[in-house]
Fold each of these.
Amino acid sequence: MQGRGRGSVFGRRSCVPAPLDTSKRNGCTRSFGSKRRDSQEILSMKYRTWVEIDERALSSNISQLRALTSSGTRFCAVVKANAYGHGLREVVHIAARAGTDAFAVDSLDDALSIRGWMPSALIVVIGYTLHERLRDAVLADIHLTVYDVDTIRAIEDIAAKEARQAHVHIKLETGTARQGVLADDLNAVIDALQSAPHVHVAGVSTHFANIEDTSDTRFATLQLSRFREAVDAVRARGLNPEWVHCACSAAIILYPETHGTLVRAGISMYGIWPSPITEQTSRKHGVPCDLTPVLSWKSRIAQVKSLPTGSPVGYGLTEVLKRNSRLAVVPVGYWDGYDRGLSSIGETIVGGSRCRVVGRVFMNMIVIDVSTVPNIEREQEVLLLGRAGRHEVSANRIADQLETIPYEILARINPTLPRVIV
């Protein structure tokens, strides 16, 4: 990817060296007091399994990511999938306080929830909306993603009947083979929009397929080129979208030429790097970005028991104790999002000690070995995910154990579990 884009929309230099140029930028952080943290520690005592959201970490991540963009670029917080498992309501309110300019969600239901909390927020549905729900979106002033003629006509009909102006973002397919209009079909979509006086083209977007892989930027460069050409075509036909956006987390951090007028921060906002190589490249070239994980997942000891060598543990007798052991039952299981693949390999932290899952993960509980924990007590705190002193059970570590990605580990935490802001 080249260091400087064309025109006023794509014109900043990249911070990754040859064949990309480097650029040093100053980050910023924001600090919070401890009163909220203390009160929430008391509040969390009523829960047996819960998720904690670190407001200071989330706000700091947002501040740092915003600092990597130009003054003319707005910041959109991606809060789909229950804010990547962190809790939609909690994250939206923290992000708003941190100065977020817009929110992106996958579903209209999430968009309507945010609208109820924030009547004037810019909210974009980046996923598919059923045609029978389009009226709800128009009446709530929700921005919709479009890429086909039928949807545009349906939105126009609804907006005309309601005497409202609908707002849409054209999604361009540049290489992911997901939703979006292909280059050959773009003119037909533009024709439909020009014939829809009640539909305002507020934005145009695309999504990168592998921009997290800095070892080979050729495909990302191709996608950016296709996107620029399509944006030029849209403007050449008389449409002037305000929000031009394609930059995801990795692009925000490493490629300023992708930033456009709006960036969409997803996984990085929650303190998780998009990929190991993204983090390595960022640190190698001095990008001022020090992300802090936002989420901790905790539970409590429900029962402690001592069992002799040879005792079987759990369903299927998959594990037999090789020594006299002290075991603890913890009320969290795969219903809560604690993956069954962590049977006999999962790790927790109790009283400063790392405690392994013994036997299979159950639907609603796990058994852990607490033999090394002195003075173990019922209802003592168990850290399932997060940091406790010098010990950590990270989303990346769990993802490696399960041969998946940290996105999935976080997003699959059951949304019914309490989210507590600390």
Amino acid sequence: MAPAIGIDLGTTYSAVAAARPGRRPEVLWNHDGDLLTPSVVLLSGAGEALIGKTAKHATKNVPGDCVELAKRREGAAGWTFTDSQGGVRGAEEIQGLILRRLAEDAAAALGEPIGEVVLTAPARAGAAARRALRSAAEAAGLTVAGLVDEPVAAGLAFGVTQGTVLVYDLGGGTLEVTVMTVDDDGSHVLATDGDRRLGGFDFDDRLMAYVASEVRKLAGPDLLDGGRRQAELRERCEQAKHALSRAFQTRLFIAGADRSYTVEVSRERFERMTRDLLQRAAAVADAALGRAGVSWARIDRILLVGGSTRMPMVRRMIERRLGGVADTTIDPDQAVALGAAIAARDGRTGALRLHDGELL
């Protein structure tokens, strides 16, 4: 029997998980040997496309042909991307290209074709965005068993069975905070709030601006000009951000024509330059609780989802409000995909109800 498949099509990174009856779900390796696939597409006028790590690296050489953050346009009527050769693609087609690649990698990892899949969608996604996601998957040749909301999938991955739960999902491109109750009848979303323009990418932007300012003091105004240099700078700043989640200080090395320039960044400085972003992130959590009519004191469990929740300041902010410890027992990058696979597996055995093509 083919394993149940769950797909988390993320704004900056995507993942596929598989679940078999009686076994723990697992995220599948892609053909690059990674568990996460960058949600980046490199297009050419000849109709060809590269997806994932290769496309992400290509942003340094042909940034005008690379599409990033397509999920931010999910369901946006009329949005298109035009490559350097004049080729035009819509958001739905871009999503379909990524989904096809994810499905191919999953089949290769399993050594067999995949069957039906369960996709995830933000809890705040409207009908148009959900239809677009389903259409993109079907155009990519996938058979969609249903959609499950991302926070519900996260709850399944964390093994939540009872209580009032806050799912704090800060990914690379978007933030969504959901308050839900879980009981014997399943998960019930009370309220959700979010910011489609707030994610790790925006924290990278602040670090880029700071590093660029420091480099220009050392090397003059021209060193970082051009799409290639900006793409290289973004890559280094993303790496530095990750390093600052583990260490209190890091260094960035920027290559010049005949020498390298070093910029030191401390975690404290990084947190200062992004303080307003953290305040926005906190306000979304407060708004979600307000919509639900639930106080922080009534929250039994907080689930941290999305790679950007690894930033210590994010966890600190949440735990100060909660007055307790957030749950980090599941890899935040994998939780949604793992939960989708569980939903797919249990939906087939009747543990979750299927209604109008969607998992509830």
